[in-house]
Amino acid sequence: MSSKYNFIEHIEKGYVTKGDAITMGAAMYEGETVTDAYVKIPLKTLNRHGLIAGATGTGKTKTLQVLAENLSEKGIPVLLMDLKGDLSGIAQPSPGHRKIDERHAKIGFPFEAKNFPIEILSLSDQDGVRLRATVSEFGPVLLSRILDLTETQSGIVAVIFKYCDDHKMPLLDLKDFKKVLQYATGDGKKEFQESYGRISTASTGAILRKIIELEQQGADLFFGETSFDVEDLTRIDEDGRGYINIIRLTDIQDRPKLFSTFMLSLLAEIYETFPEQGDSGRPELVLFIDEAHLIFKQASSALLDQIESIVKLIRSKGIGLYFVTQNPTDIPEAVLGQLGLKIQHALRAFTAKDRKAIKLTAENYPDSDFYDTTEVLTSLGIGEALISALDEKGRPTPLAATMLRAPMSRMDVLTSKELAEVIDNSKLVEKYNEEIDRESAYEMLTEKIKKAEALEEKEKAARVQEEKKTSRRSSSRSTRQNPIIKVLTSATFIRSIFGILKKVIK
Predict the structure, then answer these.
(1) Buried b vs exposed e over 229-238: b needs ≥16 C-beta within 10 Å?
(2) How far is 127 from 132, CA to CA, in rounded Å?
(3) Bond from prior residue into 329 cis (ω within 30 degrees of 0)
(4) Hey, which end of the chain has fewer CB within 10 Å, N or C?
(5) How many other β-carbons are positioned within 10 Å of the β-carbon of residue 279?
(6) What is the pTM of this model?
């Protein structure tokens, strides 16, 4: 092993920055923190994505909090997925603690308690700014991938969207989509067949079942109006700090389909909305996806392909994606290979499978003359992590076991009163929380079917009336006597005949 002096020189040289950077903490050598040996992440490389991993209780959430606070302070907006409900405390300053002071004394970095501007968002009925999107905004391709449809079924979805476009029928929620789907093989079967070809009832039934499955995970709350404008994620407060947008997801941990649907739609919308900017000096927005394995859990190969494509392309829009999970193996290799920053907290080796996972994790990090990576991974304490980032030229920085700084804000949840105050002061609640159910495909098709039924009833009544008239005319003709018969059967004619017969007989 090299000397401590060589180690310090190695760290200082590897983490020197010309532009602005976030200081994460101080490097550790042989288990001891080296004061002032700062480990820094350049703002310029924060759109290269990253990973925060480690076993439960090792400090992943606090690391996420440190990154979010520092980004906000530098005027960069942040979006956090809060599945455990312990990130709302960012709105209040840290009360401080003796252990925090001791930690920062070791790092050689002053501690300052601060609060940060936050916005509470929600996908469900929880309090906060409601996040919604319309079915039309998803489009046929993305919706088909989310539903994991076959090629034939995806073609039917494309036809449904085309029909609605042709007839100016907005597809806002799942109720709209289901109505058109049922109409295509029901009352509108003939209309669809003439314009778009025959649609199989079996295929529409299969699509309908997939939609119902999505609805059961709460997607009916997500699809609809008012659609959330992703530009509202990039707000800056009056002090020049970026807003930290926190999505409360505590009630959807058991609904991975809804979570992945939302994430994919959000990433797709950001990619479509934000302009190209290449490698600028700082990101426009940074997203932290906690419990990231939920995105990939039960995801189809088509859905994974879509996520991988967006991860690769969204960097050029100035967007940074950071996945937070227990083990790096939770993330697909194609995504893992795109991540520039890796912050690895301790892993626990309780089983042979765990030891194998640790060995694989160690291979994801640069070689080091100062660390046995496999050994360090199991010996890191709470609030310590292995860090490998990219320098300003895009090169991997030296691997550094780091004593991480403490969050400046509260490391706990807001009270109910504090949370209510944040939501009451929100400028977005009024904009997005009013439920709108304007006329769309469901109402338009229902009205169309009613008119068709009314017309059919009217035509049927007209046919019945005509049949009655025809019947009466026929009956009238059948009962009207022929003039000759009328003469022959008249009383005068009969009396004349009898008179003549009487004369003849006489």
Answers:
(1) ebebbbeeee
(2) 14
(3) no
(4) C
(5) 13
(6) 0.83
Cα 55 to chain centroid distance, Å, stands at: 26
Dihedral sign (CA 324, 330, 335, 337): positive
Concatenating the DSSP letter of every residue in 41-81 gives EEGGGGGG-EEEE--TTSSHHHHHHHHHHHHHHTT--EEEE
123 contact partners, CB below 8 Å, separation of at least 6: 131, 218, 221, 222, 247, 249, 252, 258, 262
In one-letter notation, the amino acid at residue 120 is: I
Both tokens of 147, joined, read: 């539903």
Structure tokens at 267: 């990433």
The CA-to-CA distance between both ends of the chain, in Å, stands at 163
In the chain, the amino acid numbered 266 is: L
Q: Enter the tokens of residue 274.
A: 């934000």
Buried b (16+ CB within 10 A) or exposed e, 338-351: bbbbbbbbbbbbee
DSSP per position, 255-278: -HHHHHHHHHHHHHHHHHHSPP--
pLDDT per residue, tens digit, the chain (506 aa), is 458 889 999 999 999 998 899 999 999 998 899 999 999 999 999 989 999 999 888 999 999 999 999 999 999 999 998 877 789 899 999 999 999 999 999 999 999 999 999 999 988 778 889 988 899 988 898 888 888 899 999 999 999 999 999 989 999 999 999 999 999 988 888 888 888 888 989 999 999 999 998 888 888 888 888 889 999 999 999 999 999 999 988 776 667 777 777 877 888 888 888 988 876 788 999 999 887 877 776 666 766 777 788 888 888 899 999 999 988 888 888 888 889 999 999 988 777 777 887 888 887 788 888 988 888 888 999 999 999 999 998 899 999 999 999 999 999 888 889 999 999 999 999 899 887 778 888 888 888 888 877 777 777 777 777 777 777 666 655 555 556 656 556 666 666 666 666 666 65
